[in-house]
Amino acid sequence: MPVQELTPVATPYFFYGLSAVAVLSAIGVIMRRNPVHSAISLIFTLLSLAGLYLMLYAPFVAGVQIILYVGGIVVLFLFVVMLVEMTKYKEKGLFQVQTPYAVAAVLAGAVAIISVFWRTWFGPDAEQALTLSPKLAQGLDVASQNAQAVSRGLFAEFLLPFEILSVILLVALVGAVVLAKTERV
After folding, report:
1. Which of 29, 50, 77, 181 lies 20 to 30 Å (CA to CA) from residue 139?
2. Quick one: which H or E segment has residue 51?
3. 159-180: string of b/e by CB count within 10 Å (b at 16+)?
4. What is the DSSP secondary-structure string of 76-111?
């Protein structure tokens, strides 16, 4: 089957505008002192990324971006912010003491992820690893049926990582509730 050439959805000005909104709101996420304002900046970042996905002919990914991340994850962040009393912990200086450990943990996690997935991302089999198997892609035009390709890959080959991610999010939610729970004497 011949490959179709995709025409641009919008002018480059839309790309530059959405990119500027994404970068500026991402800077707002880390520069704001109020966590609620940071979460609102994160919403703008994620919405502009969804617009960029639409420009790349990925409506499924744009929809997931809006529904899952803007609708779910940011609400979870706000839920945690509202539950945890930040003023109580700022007085004790706990966050300033834990900063070097957090940076070390993030760097160790990044090194672990890169070392595990380096061959998958950049090795000789990278293109094959990031595509559907021929059995799953049978009868599917991936260029025009984006949502079907993602769903076949997600619920067939990558079901276990998907379920592991849901358990990790559940553990994070339970951890936020445990941290926010006040002790009764």
Report:
1. 50
2. helix 35-55
3. eeeeeeeeeeeeeeeeebeeee
4. HHHHHHHHS-HHHHHHHTHHHHHHHHHHHHHHHHHH
Burial 48-85 (b: 16+ CB within 10 A, else e): bbbbbbbeeebeebbebbbeebbeeebeebbebbeeee
Return the pLDDT at 44: 94
CA pair distance 42, 29, nearest whole angstrom: 6
Is residue 145's pLDDT more than 90?
Answer: no
CA distances from 111 to 34, 103, 148 (A): 31, 12, 33
**Phi and psi dihedrals of 9, rounded to 5?**
-75, -40
CB 22 within 8 A of CB 52: yes
For the chain, give the percent of residues with pLDDT over 90.
11
The full set of domains in the chain, from first to last, is 7-83 (1.20.120.1200)
pTM over the 0.70 mark = no
Other beta carbons less than 10 A from residue 147's beta carbon = 13
